[in-house]
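re: ur msg from earlier - yeah i can do the adenosine-5'-triphosphate complex, just paste it... oh wait u already did. ok heres what im feeding in:
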Amino acid sequence: MTAGCHLPASGLLISHRLSRPGDGGSAISRVTHVVLLVGLWVCGAVTSETGGGLGTGCSDRVRAKKMDKIWGQACGQLEQEVGANNYNLWIKPLRLVDLKDGNAEFAAPTRFLSDWVNRHFAQAILAELDRLGHRAERLRFHVRPVGSSDAAAPRQPRSDRSADTAAASLQVERSADLGAPLDPRFTFENFVVGKPNELAHAAARRVGEGGPVSFNPLFLYGGVGLGKTHLMHAIAREYIDRHPDHRVLYLSAEQFMYRFVQALKEKTVMDFKEMFRTVNLLMVDDVHFIAGKNSTQEEFFHTFNALVDQGKQIVISADRAPGEIKGLEERIKSRLSCGLLADLHPTTYELRLGILQAKTEAFRSQYPGLEIAPGVLEFLAHRITSNVRVLEGALQRLFAFASLIGREITLDMTQECLTDILRASDRRVSIEEIQRKVAEHYNIRLADLIGPKRVRTVARPRQIAMYLSKQLTNRSLPEIGRRFGGRDHTTIMHGVKKIEELAGSDEGLSEDIDLLKRLLEA
Ligand SMILES: Nc1ncnc2c1ncn2[C@@H]1O[C@H](COP(=O)(O)OP(=O)(O)OP(=O)(O)O)[C@@H](O)[C@H]1O
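and the outut:
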């Protein structure tokens, strides 16, 4: 997809060239990370600059009527296809103004909305127009308040247009009442709680309730696919349900930067600030993205402070703790660490099994009548330890495969159908498993292995576990340190080096390590 901006005489025209259906994955299926944007910013700034008619006269009025009719026909089907929330939030505010030269031209209330539609719904819209016999290659957007003027209306005086801008703002704002286009699966009810995520889950629930702010920000962090986004969506959903009149802004740090840079370019920084500083709940995903991006960090810092000063809640997610994000300014690290840091730890066997059982229940309604043999879920929970996304994908594949061939899911089928996933998982072992195996092997308590005891009988196995964690996982030294009772990364480095040295001269130790590796990789 390519996008470009042109400035025709009548106003800002954003044009986007789209790949046709079949060129790539479905646009809708890619909508996983969602922004619920309830904002005045883009509306006010862009529309006041860019309102304007497409032309006047009788033929324009006829065309406008025709376009309304076509769009009316398309909308019914689109609503079904993208769901009521997405439809109300993103598609309903559009108005079709022309179909010509391979372009489907729309009036859109804000540039943000047009960008979003273009990224996520263009293929659905083009396909629907095609189905109705109006083939177009791409969408183009005239950014202006949709309700203010149609294709036939003359350009309005500036004072009238500002009233329309307010109307458009309201339209976008009201759409929040309809609910956010959040992933419907990412709810608290669907989140399986276990030891590794219980703190993060409890804190997320508290924020979702929207009571008095007790920790600000809530900082959720953890490795890939462990449920950060799931919890963020669940918070947003719960919060909106309980406070339909509040303003929630949920976006990735990348989007924050993009919006900020755009505001700088368009000299709309004040609107940007206004939008971010008037929300009740700000949620920023993947904050590590702004590391090293100085002016974005600066703006983020001020936004953050302004909201905290007003007692507004902030929720942040990242792949690691603030102190471990390289390139993040110290003052931001310190602000982010002021609230509650909730770590989503790697899953345990019990949690994985619980998640598999819950997902199996959900799949049963999708694949009625499919049986799953005893032991299959236990096998998967034991073998696939990398992350929940992979686990979920494996189960989905199994169900799809079994339903195709119409047979019960057995252990043999599982091994055959998931060879690649199992092989890839074999290479990944969790630090927790390493610790457990090492503790078992040396017959010491797991708590001692992780704890502060310095006696040799505990300290040496601990170093072996550190060494194996470095060798068999892709965790960084600080991450390993965290899982060894919050030890500093230099301690881990020292432990790893010590074992490397000793293994060269101590045959018994080297055999022990080989045996442990084989056990862990079995
Ligand atoms: N405890 C859980 N219960 C149920 N499903 C879970 C749980 N943890 C993760 N999942 C599921 O695993 C998948 C991956 O989770 P999610 O996208 O939230 O991970 P993430 O931590 O945001 O990963 P990334 O860092 O890659 O963005 C989702 O489908 C989510 O629903």
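cool cool. The chain has a mean pLDDT of 79. ping me if u need the other ligands too
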